[in-house]
């Protein structure tokens, strides 16, 4: 580690759960889960394990990813990225779909192949390439009842990189380090000093999350657990600790022999609530008696002993003057038609309203980005004139179809609407503002304030600050976090909403 330089956790703020990382020479590549969001599985690139730039997404074409009707927090679970003989591999599970799949690319920025579907049940697949030329696939599945919280087992089969198929017999290699363990999952295999090391998670992906480890002299087992398990957890530190739920980890080494762990955790605020979702953190690892010793995961830590490599900062304001949407933007489920455009009116994002709304398990006309800070502000300039009831456009804070907040221009005026548990409540109304209007959300912890302006710089509050604790998984369930972005719905796709710009700024002094 480098004591003269520090970094701040999380290294990927906002909802970036289930991280997986691999190293190719001096370059590091990382992917995370995306569940019902499209494009799927973002790819990040780093040269110092601290500063990451987005390269794109693994699944960025509708032909690769069918998210039609996917439930919230279903979809894409727990990808793993690996590199072997010049080829990148990502394995993942489409939970409300055919199951496990593998995609490949020679450039992590893409294009990635169409999925090849793999046999076997469960979630959290991983690949391991042994030094004897063989490759192995692992995943976790329920023991007997079909419910993950009734116990799981880690299973393994050989993987043929030439045909992208599983082959040979199946081996059950692990059923958890703790008796009646909850969700033994997230298996990753490594070969360290001639021994096979199995890294897993246990305890559920909430406060009791933990990292466990086992090892074997042969890849198919038997595996012995570390008597000091768990090798990383924060569950003993209390509900008020600033970083909780540490687990679902992956290991990576540096060219100089340092070891590091990427993992998910979350930062509670506003009591025992977190709107940011599970984020990606980094912590050092050392080895004792052939076992990894990790953490604890700290907000500020000594940096890896790698040359610092910062990427050019992304602008806080998107003026929509690029030919394609920036990698930060996502949509709900798979778009089957082109309802957005950056070329119809150059310098604007044009949304064609859809009959599907954010309350539907569908693909509404919503383009959003992750909320990445406890304190933030997001603003946009919009031109839209609603012509009849049912037409609306503006900004939205979205957790899922039953929990979101709308700040929209309608035929009846500007409306602030909270949807909680599937029920809508109008929080505030203002006189109609046809044509150009400026809209914004500002958050300080769990207190959110909607704002608007009908003239540049003349911002006014719309309603009182509202409690944002309904926009988190502790209230709503699931595994995601809040997205903020632009939205339009209505029966007339020709009555378009044009967004001139969108700006997102942290208000806590950290970087975007």
TrEMBL record:
Question: Which interval of the chain is the signal sequence?
Answer: none
Query: What Gene Ontology terms describe what this protein does at the molecular function level?
Result: hydrolase activity, hydrolyzing O-glycosyl compounds
- InterPro entries per the UniProt record, alphabetical: ConA-like_dom_sf, GH43_C2, Glyco_hydro_43, Glyco_hydro_beta-prop_sf, Glycosyl_Hydrlase_43
Q: Which keywords are on file for this protein?
A: Glycosidase, Hydrolase
Record: active site: 18 (proton acceptor), 185 (proton donor)
Q: Which GO terms describe its biological process?
A: carbohydrate metabolic process
Is Hydrolase a UniProt keyword of this protein?
A: yes
Segments forming domain Beta-xylosidase C-terminal Concanavalin A-like: 317-505
Q: Name the family.
A: Belongs to the glycosyl hydrolase 43 family.
- Protein's name according to its UniProt entry: Glycoside hydrolase 43 family protein
Q: What organism does this protein naturally occur in?
A: Actinomadura rubrobrunea
């Amino acid at each position: 580690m480098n004591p003269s330089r520090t970094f701040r956790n999380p290294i990927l703020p906002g909802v970036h759960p289930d991280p997986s990382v691999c190293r190719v020479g001096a370059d590091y590549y990382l992917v995370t889960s995306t569940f019902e969001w499209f494009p799927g599985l973002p790819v990040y690139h780093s040269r110092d394990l601290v500063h990451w730039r987005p390269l794109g997404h693994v699944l960025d074409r509708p032909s690769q990813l069918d998210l039609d009707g996917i439930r919230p927090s279903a979809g894409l679970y727990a990808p793993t990225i690996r590199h072997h003989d010049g080829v990148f591999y990502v394995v993942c599970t489409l939970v409300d779909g055919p199951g496990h799949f593998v995609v490949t690319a020679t450039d992590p920025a893409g294009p990635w192949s169409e999925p090849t579907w793999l046999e076997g049940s469960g979630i959290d697949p991983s690949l391991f390439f042994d030094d004897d030329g063989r490759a192995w696939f692992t995943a976790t599945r329920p023991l007997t009842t079909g419910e993950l919280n009734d116990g799981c087992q880690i299973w393994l089969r050989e993987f043929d990189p030439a045909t992208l198929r599983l082959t040979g017999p199946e081996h059950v290699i692990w059923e958890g380090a703790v008796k009646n363990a909850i969700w033994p999952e997230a298996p990753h295999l490594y070969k360290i000093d001639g021994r096979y090391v199995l890294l897993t998670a246990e305890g559920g992906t909430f406060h009791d999350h933990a990292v466990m480890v086992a090892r074997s002299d042969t890849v198919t087992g038997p595996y012995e657990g570390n008597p000091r398990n768990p090798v990383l957890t924060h569950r003993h530190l209390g509900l008020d600790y600033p970083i909780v739920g540490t687990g679902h980890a992956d290991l990576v080494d540096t060219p100089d022999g340092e070891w590091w762990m990427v993992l998910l955790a979350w930062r509670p605020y506003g009591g025992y609530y977190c709107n940011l979702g599970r984020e990606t953190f980094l912590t050092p690892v050392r080895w004792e008696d052939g076992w990894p010793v990790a953490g604890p995961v700290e907000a500020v830590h000594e940096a890896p002993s790698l040359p610092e490599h910062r990427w050019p900062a992304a602008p806080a304001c998107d003026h929509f003057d690029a030919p394609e949407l920036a990698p930060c933007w996502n949509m709900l489920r798979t778009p089957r038609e082109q309802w957005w455009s950056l070329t119809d009116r150059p310098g604007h994002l044009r949304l064609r309203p859809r009959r599907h709304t954010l309350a539907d398990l569908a693909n509404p006309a919503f383009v959003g980005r992750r909320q990445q800070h406890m304190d933030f502000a997001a603003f946009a300039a919009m031109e839209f004139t609603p012509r009849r009831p049912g037409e609306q456009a503006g900004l939205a804070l979205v957790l899922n179809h039953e929990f979101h907040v709308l700040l929209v221009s309608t035929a009846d005026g500007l409306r602030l609407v909270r949807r909680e548990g599937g029920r809508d409540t109008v929080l505030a109304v203002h006189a109609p503002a046809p044509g150009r209007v400026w809209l914004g959300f500002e958050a300080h912890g769990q207190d959110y304030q909607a704002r608007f302006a009908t003239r540049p710089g003349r911002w006014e509050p719309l309603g009182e600050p509202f409690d944002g604790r309904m926009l988190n998984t502790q209230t709503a369930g699931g595994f995601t976090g809040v997205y903020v972005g632009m939205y339009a719905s209505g029966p007339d796709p020709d009555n378009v909403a044009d967004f001139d710009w969108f700006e997102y700024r942290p208000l806590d002094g950290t970087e975007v």
